[in-house]
Amino acid sequence: MEEMAKITIGDETFELPVIVGTEGERAIDIQSLRKRTGLITYDPGFNNTGSCKSAITFMDGENGVLRYRGIPVEQLAEKSTFVETAYLLINGRLPEQKELTRFSVLLNDHSMVHEDMRTFFENFPRGAHPMGILSAMVNALRFFYPQLEGLSETEELDIIVTRLISKVRTMAAMSYKISLGHKVVYPKPDLCYCANFLNMMFDSPVKPYNLDPDFIRALNVLWILHGDHEQNCSTSAVRLVGSARVNLYASISAGISALWGRLHGGANQAVIRMMEEIHAAGGDVKPFVARARDKNDNFRLMGFGHSVYKTYDPRAKIIKKMADTVQAKLDKSDPLLDIARELEEVALKDPYFIDHNLYPNVDFYSGIVMRAMGIPTEMFTVMFAIGRLPGWIAQWKECFDSPRWKLSRPRQIYIGNNVRDYTPIEARTKTML
Ligand code: CMC
C-alpha cells in the first residue's frame, strides 16, 4: 500500500503520497499541495527539494557513496576510461566493444573546431578567464554547426553529443595555446581522448611532448570522478535552462557559467590560490583554520565542506592517493602537497570542522594532481567542465526523453511592499521611494 504523509494546517489534515527511490530514499510528493491547500513549500537553495526523478547518479551523503548508473565510482576509477564512463552516463549502460569503437570514432571525427572559431579566441581580451571563453564558445557552436537535416532524431543527438564532448576538449586546449601566443596543436586521430588533450596542451614544434601513460591514466581517473554528481548547481542550471526548450549547446553553456563560481567548480582554482597564500605566509596552516571558523571573517577553507556529503567525499579519497602517484613523477616535490596534507590533518581534528561535518571535497587535492601534469591554475575549472560534460548531457537527455518535461518555475514568498499608489516625482520624499 502506498505510504502517505499527513499535513495538518489549521484544523484540516491533508494526505500526500510518499514516493520511494530504488535505494530507499523517501520524499513527500507535494505537487498537489497548492491546489488542495493554497500553500507552497519554502526551501531556499532547494537543498531539501527533489527537483526530478533521475536514474543517472546515486549519492549517499551520510556514507560517502557515489555511483553512476549503479556502478560505484571506485570501480570505474580503477577499471574504466573516461570515454567508456561518458558512454555509460549518457546511454545508461556500459557499451559493447563495437559500440565503444563507434563512440570513439565519432569523437575523433568531430574533434576539429571550425577555423572561423579560432578568430573568436584571438579577439578575447588578454587575461580573459578561460571559463568565460568556454561558455561563450560552446553557445556559439550552435551557429557553426546547424546542419543536421536528414538525420533521425537519435542520429542527430548522437552527433550533437559527440561533437560537444570532442570539441569542448579541443577548444579548451586551443584557448590555452592562444593565451600563450603559441601555435595551436590539432587533435591526432591515433591518440585516445585524454592523450589527445595532453598533446594539444603541451606539444610544440620546438619541444615535442612525451606522453606519459601515468598522466594519461590520471587524467582518465580525474575526469571519470568529475563525470556526474546528480542535481548540483551547474546540472540544475542545465536542466532549468533546457526546460525552456533552448538547444543543448545553450543549456551546457549555462552549466559552464554556473560551474565557474568559487563555491562550485571554481573551488579547485580557489584551493590552490589559498594554498599559495599559506605557502607565501610561511606555511603555517593554523591561522587559516582559525580564520575559517571565525564568524566575523567570511573566509572559508576552500575544498572543504559539501552540501550533500557530511563525510569524506569518495572522489577526494581517490584523488588524494593519485596526488602521491603523480608527485612521484616530478623531479621536485610540490610544497603545496605538504600544505594540503597538513591543512587536512589540522582541520579534521578541529572541533568546528567536526561539529559542522566538514571534510575535504573533490576540489581539495585535484589541483595538486593537475599542477603535477603541468595544467595552469586558470584552466582547472575548465578541466572540471570537460569531466562534467557527459553528466550534463546525460541529465539534459533524461529530460529530453521524458514525455513530461515541465518548464522549471520555482515560486517565492513575497516580502515586499503591499499595494500603494504611484506618487508624482515632485511630491516624492525619500520615505515614499
Ligand atoms: N569553511 C568554513 N566553514 C564552512 C565551510 C568551509 N569550507 N563550508 C561550510 N562551512 C560552514 C558554514 O559557515 C556554515 O556554518 P554555520 O552553520 O555555523 O553558519 C555551515 O558550515 C553550513 O554551510 P552552508 O554554506 O550554509 O551550507 P552547505 O553545506 O550547503 O555548503 C559549500 C556547501 C560547498 C557551499 C560549503 O561547504 C563551502 O563554501 N565550501 C568551500 C567551497 C568549496 O570547496 N566548494 C566545492 C564544493 S565540492 C565541488 C562541487 O561539487 O562543486
UniProtKB/TrEMBL annotation:
Q: Which GO terms describe its cellular component?
A: cytoplasm
Question: Of which family is this protein a member?
Answer: Belongs to the citrate synthase family.
**Which biological pathway?**
Carbohydrate metabolism; tricarboxylic acid cycle; isocitrate from oxaloacetate: step 1/2
Which InterPro entries does the protein's record reference? Citrate_synth-like_lrg_a-sub, Citrate_synth-like_sm_a-sub, Citrate_synthase, Citrate_synthase_AS, Citrate_synthase_bac-typ, Citrate_synthase_sf, Citrate_synthase_typ-I
> An example of a Gene Ontology BP annotation on this entry?
tricarboxylic acid cycle
Q: Name one GO molecular function term.
A: citrate synthase activity
The organism named in the record is: Desulfatibacillum aliphaticivorans
Q: Which UniProt keywords apply?
A: Acyltransferase, Transferase, Tricarboxylic acid cycle
Under catalytic activity, the entry for this protein gives: oxaloacetate + acetyl-CoA + H2O = citrate + CoA + H(+)
Whether Acyltransferase counts among this entry's keywords is yes
Q: Which residues catalyse the reaction?
A: H306, D363
What name does this protein carry?
A: Citrate synthase
What NCBIfam families is this protein classified in?
cit_synth_I (TIGR01798), PRK05614.1 (NF004126)
Q: Has keyword Nucleus?
A: no
